Amino acid sequence: MVQSNGGCASASPAAASSCEQSGKSAADLGLNLDDPSLSSDVVSKVTSHPCYSPEGHKYARIHLPVAPACNIQCNYCNRKFDCSNESRPGVVSKLLSPAKGVQRFVKVKERIPETNVVGIAGPGDPLANPAATLATLKAAAKQDSDVHLCVSTNGLALLELVPSLVKVGVSHLTITINCIDAAIGAKIYPWIYFNHKRLRGREASQVLIDRQLAGLKAAVAAGMLVKVNTVLIPGINDHHIEALAQELKLHGALLHNIMPLISDPAHGTYFGLTGQRQPTEDEVAEARAAAGSNMAQMSHCQQCRADAVGHLGQDIDLDADESVKPVQQEVAESYLVAVATKSDVLIDQHFGHAQSFALYQIYEDSIAPMGRRDVSQYCVDNECDETESRMASMLQALEGVSSVLCARIGMTPWQALEQAGVMPSTDYALFDIQQALSALQQQWLEQGKFSQQSRCKEAV
Amino acid sequence: MAYSITSACIGCNACKLVCPQKAIVSSATGYAIAEHRCNECVGHHADPQCASICPIETAIVDQDHRALNPPGSLTGLPNERQVIAMTKLAAKVSGGKGGAHATNG
């Protein structure tokens, strides 16, 4: 159910150009790429990103859903909702770990080579999950140095993260700013989590607005292309758009994307359930015109999901794709599992801190302890990044192991282990070792990972 | 003294990121609070952090199973009890009207 508001949303070149001709006002309000104040670098960054300009439609983007947590609540969002029939911002079907996210990017890039944008847009707020977001972006840039890194945020945690975003190479940033008046904000945001507290009402929206504008300014100063998204909510912020656009211009935003509120009651959002209506197409056009004197307007937004993949308006269904692929799974009679543990009772050790692993052989019907195996510690003096040689000896030491259970593990060793065919897992962090191994055994039984051979033996 | 997570949890991971005690554990089956680690944030912060960021009402409860974020407290949406009360009220009002009509008729 992709909303397409106005014909300009189409991703096909023919439709986009015909739209530019017919929808004159919309085109006039857009970013003037001939503007001498725009550097050629900015123009190329804008035109090669499908979300920043209709010219970017020949490129494709991938949103990696690695950021589930959020630090605010918006009345147009329902955190409980996920439905495969639904398509709107903030919604995903399946979360990914940073490592899996990068894997997905590599796979998609093989299929759609023009995928040049890796974005993180949720399903929560990317900057409320800074570790996962930054790790994913860093790893994506490592895979493809030409990729544009893109983040979409509510802006609450932006200010102090601008340096980190610049460091990993984020070039495109989107902040959703719906108002600059706390009285209006109080009708949109029931609460925010800030400075270890849940704030509500006007206080909450004042903090959010201040932080958004400060973050916007800092991001622009740091050289990022900043687009501002505004959800148009009739009767709440529609009379306020001009003042908002003025302020955005003052703070240096490049583009303004006014999106119509989606308030289908079936989505279970506050606005949906309390009968807040969506704006008409005319109202959206009016708002864009009101903002247009100050801010270049964008009108081809598809309001896509936080796990969207492909060309704008032609999302591919990755889940269907992944499930069709025949699962080639190796089966064996038993598996060797390495456990990072200090206490020998709980799975309580960081992978990188382990100097030895407790080994267990998991059979279909039993679990046998196999003693400990020494390894050279992976992380030394917090220098976990320059450890390729240590990883090689670690992999040697872990030979024959099919899975490693630990309390925590860094992104780099996770990927290296996976590549070497060893499955790392933090699913059982702080679990009792025996309980975890039993759970794993059960899981593998259900997946049919144990070979027929042992089952036959048992039957005889 | 420890909180726990109910089946209302949607697994957004927010609590795990803000817990100063690293008491929140997650697995394929869901999220839980390691009882021996949770100190309800006493000595860390004025408010328990998990309950301060959790977006889901009734997902985090105290030892007596009292929700730290009771129904209606986060979304502002009318909760079940309010809906029942409002329905009763509406029935009363329309019932009253109906009665008036009946006498008029």
UniProtKB/TrEMBL annotation, chain A:
<dbReference type="InterPro" id="IPR003731">
    <property type="entry name" value="Di-Nase_FeMo-co_biosynth"/>
</dbReference>
<keyword id="KW-0004">4Fe-4S</keyword>
<dbReference type="InterPro" id="IPR036105">
    <property type="entry name" value="DiNase_FeMo-co_biosyn_sf"/>
</dbReference>
<dbReference type="InterPro" id="IPR005980">
    <property type="entry name" value="Nase_CF_NifB"/>
</dbReference>
<protein>
    <submittedName>
        <fullName>Nitrogenase cofactor biosynthesis protein NifB</fullName>
    </submittedName>
</protein>
<keyword id="KW-0456">Lyase</keyword>
<dbReference type="InterPro" id="IPR007197">
    <property type="entry name" value="rSAM"/>
</dbReference>
<dbReference type="Pfam" id="PF04055">
    <property type="entry name" value="Radical_SAM"/>
</dbReference>
<comment type="similarity">
    <text>Belongs to the radical SAM superfamily. NifB family.</text>
</comment>
<dbReference type="InterPro" id="IPR013785">
    <property type="entry name" value="Aldolase_TIM"/>
</dbReference>
<keyword id="KW-0479">Metal-binding</keyword>
<comment type="pathway">
    <text>Cofactor biosynthesis; Fe-Mo cofactor biosynthesis.</text>
</comment>
<dbReference type="InterPro" id="IPR000385">
    <property type="entry name" value="MoaA_NifB_PqqE_Fe-S-bd_CS"/>
</dbReference>
<keyword id="KW-0949">S-adenosyl-L-methionine</keyword>
<keyword id="KW-0535">Nitrogen fixation</keyword>
<feature type="domain" description="Radical SAM core">
    <location>
        <begin position="52"/>
        <end position="302"/>
    </location>
</feature>
<keyword id="KW-0408">Iron</keyword>
<dbReference type="InterPro" id="IPR058240">
    <property type="entry name" value="rSAM_sf"/>
</dbReference>
<keyword id="KW-0411">Iron-sulfur</keyword>
<dbReference type="Pfam" id="PF02579">
    <property type="entry name" value="Nitro_FeMo-Co"/>
</dbReference>
UniProtKB/TrEMBL annotation, chain B:
<protein>
    <submittedName>
        <fullName>4Fe-4S binding protein</fullName>
    </submittedName>
</protein>
<dbReference type="InterPro" id="IPR017900">
    <property type="entry name" value="4Fe4S_Fe_S_CS"/>
</dbReference>
<feature type="domain" description="4Fe-4S ferredoxin-type">
    <location>
        <begin position="1"/>
        <end position="29"/>
    </location>
</feature>
<dbReference type="InterPro" id="IPR017896">
    <property type="entry name" value="4Fe4S_Fe-S-bd"/>
</dbReference>
<dbReference type="Pfam" id="PF00037">
    <property type="entry name" value="Fer4"/>
</dbReference>
<keyword id="KW-0408">Iron</keyword>
<keyword id="KW-0479">Metal-binding</keyword>
<keyword id="KW-0411">Iron-sulfur</keyword>
